[in-house]
Amino acid sequence: MKKVVFVALSIGLLMCGCKSQKSLTSYANLNGEWTVVELTGHTLKADAKKPTLKFDVAENRVSGNAGCNQIVGTVKQGEAKSDALKFSGVAATRKACIDMSAEDAFLKVLDQVSSFKAEKPNEVTFYGPNKQKLFVINK
Predict the structure, then answer these.
(1) Contact in structure between 72 and 56 (CB atoms under 8 Å)
(2) Cα distance between residue 107 and residue 105, in whole Å
(3) Is 55 exposed, middle or buried, given 0-12, 13-18 or 19+ CB atoms closer than 10 A?
(4) The pLDDT of residue 138
(5) Which pLDDT band holds residue 21 (cuts at 50, 70, 90)?
(6) Would you say 33 and 52 are in contact if contact means Cβ atoms under 8 Å apart?
(7) What is the DSSP letter of 27?
(8) Distance between CA 38 and CA 81 in Å, rounded?
(9) Domain spans of the chain?
(10) How far apart are the first and last CA of the chain?
(11) How buried is residue 20: exposed, middle or buried, by Cβ count under 10 Å (0-12/13-18/19+)?
(12) What gap in Å lies between CA 1 and CA 70, rounded to an integer?
């Protein structure tokens, strides 16, 4: 009897372990704070001030830092496809920063996002309408 209980518990633990490796493609799993590690095909330098995004999926809100300025906006999952996603109403503070090129590029691609996909655990890639890779975030 003890062996049966042990086997049943072991199988249950293994099944729980498999769930933790679940794909992050679910909109709800975007919740929390992420760092942009790749932008328009270029890996961001380790010493660079990287943009961040904080998703509040319950409220369909996004906030973060574009590299210099704080950002806020709305994010919504598409109704027709589970991987469809759209950022809208993104506003940024306008501090004067030395180099705004990376920030400007990031704000531009946010407006172009049409879908997302988990490529690796804790890493999500965002794509434009023609399936072009726009940026990658990770936790």
Answers:
(1) no
(2) 6
(3) buried
(4) 95
(5) very low
(6) yes
(7) G
(8) 25
(9) 23-138
(10) 43
(11) exposed
(12) 60
Angle (CA) 131-132-138 rounded to 5° is: 100
State the Cα–Cα distance between residues 60 and 116, nearest whole angstrom: 15
Q: How does DSSP assign 104-115, residue by residue?
A: HHHHHHHHH--E
Residues 17, 117: Cα–Cα separation, whole Å: 22
Average pLDDT over residues 69-80: 92
Helix, strand and coil content of the chain, in percent to the nearest 5, comes to: 25, 40, 35
Query: Beta strands of 79-132 (E only): which ranges?
Result: 85-92, 115-120, 123-127
Collapsing DSSP to helix, strand or coil, 122 comes out as coil
Residue 112 burial (CB count, 10 A): 16
Q: Which CATH number fits domain 23-138: 3.40.50.1000, 2.40.128.270, 1.20.120.680, 3.30.465.10?
A: 2.40.128.270
> C-alpha angle 136/39/106, rounded to 5°?
105
User: What is the amino acid identity at position 48?
Assistant: A
pLDDT band, very low/low/confident/very high, at 25 (cuts 50, 70, 90): low
